[in-house]
Amino acid sequence: MNIGQAAQATGVSPKMIRHYESLGLLGGLARTESGYRQLDETALHALRFIRRARDLGFSIKEIETLLGLWRNKRRPSAEVKRVAMTHVADLQRRIEELQAMQRTLAHLAKGCHGDQRPDCPILDDLAGPA
Prior knowledge:
Elements: H1 3-10, H2 14-22, E1 30-31, E2 37-38, H3 41-55, H4 60-71, H5 77-111, H6 121-127
Antiparallel strand pairs: 1-2
């Protein structure tokens, strides 16, 4: 399968397929005599795996680890769970940070008159000391 067909089959753009290949996530892809990439079913499975992992917010480094574990049929599931739970903790931290930002902005917006007056607590806060 060529890169365009693989992109259609997996929902991963050709640009990202090239990127993942350059990072070593797809292993060595076969090439035609003219240099075109040829993706087999194993590469398609890896691309679907990567896409799903990206949809869940895993970093490229985490995906690299997970791909290695996925490919290793003798892997301990405890290692897979450790990677997943570390990611869950990171997501929770980011959610809390976003909620704090949301509360701060809502508070600042509530104090802004939103009329013709020039004073605005939102801009005052942004211009304040870091």
